[in-house]
Amino acid sequence: MRLIFLGTGGYHPNERRHTASLLFPDIGLALDAGTGFFRVQERLQTDTLDVFLTHAHLDHICGLTFFLVPVLCGDVTGVRVHGTTRTLTAVRQHLFAEELFPVVPPFDWCELSAKIEVQVAAGGRLNCFDLEHPGGSLGYRIDWPHRSVAYITDTTAPGNYLAFIRNVDVLIHECYFPDDMLEWAHKTGHSSATAVAKIARDCGAKRLYLVHSDPQHPEDDPIDLKRIRRIFPDAGLAEDLQEIEL
């Protein structure tokens, strides 16, 4: 099972990192649709696509506007966009308001809640969990036979989601700030280095990939990866277009 990091930064793109988007190209499943979403069309291996949104902040949804042409040209025969009622309402009423984007793509809109389990390709089960973040956010976990992945972004670690990600094989977790900016993490609803490392250790994850870093710092290590690895050794800062096997 392949996973491609299409966008690994937060807030706005910079010369190195686009904003949040992950793609499972072989099964037609994406998590979030930030600016990195423009890369989906070249890599998608199916003629349908399911997009699961964590929340409606622009850095996680603006890429939906990039996908009009593949649908209208028939390269993709169906797109289902999943999210909470609040998220889907915001996307439909604001992102696709006629004044901003005059041609509404023929997407199917599928409402989610933390009580709904979704069956996905290859025998997978997708569940979501409410996270604490200004405006709300969802965390996702997908379990297939013999492998699992969780995606936790736009929340402040540690949160109340430890049980939700327990024993996951691959944990993808935001890490916007290094520890010396902990106060800003709490102010903005984001996470810092040591807290994320402890979450990965305490939940029993096998691998940790860090995303949603501060775009003002495009350098190799904007989050103090050495500090994180002292607590959780199998950690890495994900990069755009990095591909992993689950």
Q: Which strand-content bin applies to the residues?
A: 25-35%
The N- to C-terminal Cα distance equals 5 Å
Report the sheet with the most strands, covering strand number, pairing sense and barrel closure. Answer: 7 strands, mixed
Shape: globular
Q: What class do helices, strands and sheet pairing give?
A: alpha/beta
* Rg, Å, rounded: 17 Å
Please tally the helical runs, counting DSSP H or I stretches of 4 or more residues: 7
Model regions low in confidence, pLDDT < 50 over at least 5 residues: none
Series of secondary-structure elements, N-terminal to C-terminal = EEEHEHHEHEEEEEEHHEHEE
- Average pLDDT, rounded to a whole number, is 96
Please provide the count of β strands.
14
Topology:
Layout: E1 2-7, E2 21-24, E3 29-31, H1 40-43, E4 48-52, H2 58-61, H3 68-72, E5 78-83, H4 85-95, E6 108-111, E7 118-120, E8 124-131, E9 137-144, E10 147-152, E11 170-174, H5 182-188, H6 193-203, E12 207-211, H7 225-231, E13 235-237, E14 243-245
Parallel strand pairs: 3-4, 4-5, 5-6, 10-11, 11-12, 12-13
Antiparallel strand pairs: 1-2, 1-14, 2-3, 7-8, 8-9, 9-10
Helix pairs in contact: 6-7
Task: Tell me what you see in this structure.
The chain has 246 residues and is an alpha/beta fold. The chain has one domain: Ribonuclease Z/Hydroxyacylglutathione hydrolase-like (Metallo-beta-lactamase, Chain A, 4-Layer Sandwich), CATH 3.60.15.10. 20% of the residues lie in helices and 28% in strands. It has seven helices and 14 strands. The strands form two sheets. The protein has a seven-stranded mixed β-sheet. The chain has a seven-stranded mixed β-sheet with strand order 7-8-9-10-11-12-13, with helices on one face. A hairpin with a 4-residue loop joins strand 2 and strand 3. Helix 6 runs parallel beside helix 7. The protein is globular. The chain starts with a strand and ends with a strand. The relative contact order is 0.16. The mean pLDDT is 96.
